[in-house]
Design goal:
By secondary structure, this protein is an alpha/beta fold. The chain has one domain: HAD superfamily/HAD-like (Rossmann fold). The chain is built from seven helices and eight strands; from the N terminus they run H-E-E-E-H-E-H-E-H-E-H-E-E-H-H. Strands 5-4-1-6-7-8 form a six-stranded parallel sheet, sandwiched between helices. Strands 2-3 form a two-stranded antiparallel sheet. Helix 5 links the parallel strand 6 and strand 7. Helix 1 crosses helix 6 and helix 2 runs parallel beside helix 6. The mean pLDDT is about 95.
Length: about 170
């Protein structure tokens, strides 16, 4: 955890994948062919708290589903990239936009399309349900599964490493 905390102190941008990270990765289809997904409310609040702490939040996903856009906008994401076949392009656009180096960016993903960014980011994170290949390359793995609080767990760990978590919790006590 010492290495995590050292890396986490420098993070100014959290970039996440959506399916398998912010959701469990299940695709549910209605009889009309409409795709449905479930998002965990704890992850949403964790992201909002992280943003309040001063860390920007962004998503890069290969999926083009409108419901992803709706949920990410509702959570106040700073940047949303849908339909990204090569996620490295969007990642570089974010780094350029915010004038950040890799050490200032954390990336969380769960499958092979995320591998390059898990390796490149200053802090590469995977949820408990990530494909086993990624374990070799990630800096840290959450105890929670994607869609079941993994993003919240990461957000809290980042805020604790940056000494911002307790102050945000205090705002709920008054």
């Amino acid at each position: 955890m010492i290495e995590f905390n050292q890396k986490a102190k420098h993070i100014k941008l959290l970039v996440i994948d959506v399916d398998g990270v912010l959701t469990a990765g299940h695709l549910v289809y209605s009889d009309q062919g409409v795709t449905l997904k479930a998002f965990h409310v704890h992850d949403g609040l964790g992201l909002q708290l992280l943003k309040k702490s001063g860390v920007k939040i962004a998503a890069i996903t290969t999926c083009v589903a409108k419901l992803n856009q709706v949920r990410l906008e509702a959570l106040g994401f700073d940047d949303i990239f849908l339909g990204q076949k090569d996620k490295r392009v969007a990642y570089q656009q974010l780094a350029d936009k915010y004038k950040l180096n890799d050490e200032q960016i954390a990336y969380m993903g769960d499958d092979l399309p995320d591998l390059a960014l898990i390796r490149r980011a200053g802090l590469g994170v995977i949820p408990a349900n990530a494909v086993s290949t990624l374990k070799t390359y990630a800096d840290w793995q959450t105890t929670k599964r994607g869609g079941d609080g993994a993003v919240r767990e990461l957000c809290e760990q980042l805020m604790q490493a940056q000494d911002t978590f307790d102050n945000l919790v205090e705002t709920y006590l008054s």
